[in-house]
Amino acid sequence: MRIISGLYKSRRITAPKNLPVRPTTDMAKESLFNILNNTFYFDDISVLDLFAGTGNISYEFASRGTAQITAVDQDFGCIKFINQTAEQFDMPINTIKSDVFKFLEKSTLKANVIFADPPYSFTEEQFSKIPELVFKNNLLLEGGVLIVEHSKHTDISKSINFSYSKSYGGNMFSFFETPE
């Protein structure tokens, strides 16, 4: 994986092969950040990266100047890799080793951008539980967005506060916003 833009532009980060992950493709990540770039000043926001895996999305936000990033994953190897990479590049990424659903049920941490990249094998009910918990616990700051990455074969458009989806190859990003 590579960092698309910002301070660490073009840096390649190689994750260990034994991590249970499916990193967001560079093409999809670049498209996502083009959308976000039109909405947010990256140095003014806070980010919550759920099912963080390799930390790919967290690194991109850090490279673009975001100083408040929290990455949540239940795999110790993923958390260890994110911590090592964040330290190596002096990135402001705080990690939490936790089951994401348990974290969302108890968390009071609010963010402008919440990004979730759960396993594509999740059921639609499991995918829909993410926005349900985020909005039930009021975890988005005003004007914030929840983005859930999923396969184009998964439809979560009936989930609470769904706004729109964008498709990039086999990847899809669904956007959720608090109604005004």
UniProtKB/TrEMBL annotation:
Pfam families the record matches: Cons_hypoth95 (PF03602)
Alphabetized UniProt keyword annotations: Methyltransferase, Transferase
- Molecular function per GO: 16S rRNA (guanine(966)-N(2))-methyltransferase activity
Q: What is its EC number?
A: 2.1.1.171
Matching InterPro entries: DNA_methylase_N6_adenine_CS (IPR002052), RNA_MeTrfase_RsmD (IPR004398), SAM-dependent_MTases_sf (IPR029063)
Provide the protein name. Answer: RsmD family RNA methyltransferase
Q: What is the lineage of its organism?
A: Bacteria, Pseudomonadati, Bacteroidota, Flavobacteriia, Flavobacteriales
